[in-house]
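Hello, quick one for you while I still have it in my head. My current little project is about how a certain protein chain folds up. You're getting the sequence in one-letter code plus the fold written as tokens. Would you mind checking whether the tokens look sensible for this chain? Here's the protein in full, and shout if anything looks odd to you:
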Amino acid sequence: MKIFSYDNKGNKSLIEFDRFTFSGGEEHVRFNPEDFLATVKVEIFERLINSSKLMRLMLAVDALRRLSHDAISIELVIPYFPYARQDRVCVEGEALGSAVMASFINNLGFSKVTIWDAHSDVSPALLKNIVNVSQISLLEKCDELRQRLARGELALVSPDAGASKKTMKIAEEFGGELEVIQAQKIRNLKTGEILKTDILGEVEGKKILIADDICDGGRTFIELAKALKKKGAIEVSLFITHGIFSKGLSVFEGLIDAIYTTDSFRSAEEYPSNSKIKLNIIEM
């Protein structure tokens, strides 16, 4: 977690603070009051990827409010919105995870909450004072990828129907000149296993960019890359806003040639390296 203080002239400074975990598992956060004498606004940046970070966030907000007697504005930047994929109740008895997380954030009373490339329209609709940074805005920060798209080197592939809207927005950003090819996956509804991936277009001899918002284990992109290479694609790249890569990068070897992602889920130095895959981290 990073805490930034702003004074009334807009000057921004990083605040150091103490935090630790007690032996019983309880989190502790403590600030130095003197660091906030000229503060009119605080911005908290955090990658909320586990429950300990959620607890520390709640403690930090409480400490800051007590310290300032609620006199300062507190903003939150959480690039990756946790539980965003749990945006519907598929089976009776399940929780609506995105609503639970949104309620947690809303109850902390932030004056602004910034997230990057929401998984669907559900999370932004549930959050108060929300700013949703678009995937296009993030892509624009990567000069190499932006230039390749501007030159028309890459054909866009949407991995499934859910990603089609995002893929079309990328094409529109570059004047609608980029070719967009739709893919669709057929799953076993009981196991979730991908049985088949169909490519609804011609990819032979083309350099392909697959675009989506989240890559976790990567099964969708592995199966799609296999189908693209089988159909004659000469290069397959992947642009993912939130690169979780829970199975590492080795699972993409021989299939994905380059990966572009942001530092939303972890800092650039924490990403795994792989000599066979070109990894480009867009640092914000």
Summary: The mean pLDDT is 93. Residues 137-282 form a domain with the Rossmann fold fold (CATH 3.40.50.2020). Residues 249 and 274 are 6 Å apart (CA to CA).
